[in-house]
Amino acid sequence: MNESKANTALLEALRAQSLQKAMATQFPVFEFNEHNQRGANFGERLQSAFDSVFSQNFERVICIGADCPELTSEDLTTAANALSKTDIVIGPDLRKGMFLLAMNRYGYEQLSFEALAWQSPQLIESLHTHCQQLSIFFLNPKFDLNKAFDLCAQSNSTVLKKLLKVIRSTLNTATYHFNFLCSILINSQLPQRAPPMQ
């Protein structure tokens, strides 16, 4: 298994984990992926997903990615509860991006997706700049990852153990593939900080 296959396996495990946690809330769940996303860039695709759900007469929408192994169902419930008193809920990640973005209808209608610095370390700052008239609630920051090797930059072994457990329980591949992926994650050397995924 090469790095590309390890990344694919890891992302599939995380996708399944995120979907499971979302469904555990009993909230309606919509999944958007490369087959049903619309837009030329990340901001346009995200806005299109929000458009799609809000057009079905929902008043509050929570959006999560599949790249945060520390995400819990309780985070989603907290975000939903916060939206009854605030316009936007942000789950910041440790790279100055987000693992969660939630909005009520008013917040969504006021937000300019094109103006935000998506997929950059300036994302949270740009949200503050362009959402000064909106109320924002922040969840506690969490670790996210964009590829298998990102784990090696983490010195927190609890995060690594948690994610390896998720991979083991989710993947329907041979034990060889799981052991190889674990070997990649544990033995690879990376700089201490990786850039946001472009």
UniProtKB/TrEMBL annotation:
This is DUF2064 domain-containing protein. It comes from the Bacteria. PANTHER family: GLYCOSYLTRANSFERASE, SLL1095 PROTEIN. The lineage of its organism: Bacteria, Pseudomonadati, Bacteroidota, Cytophagia, Cytophagales.
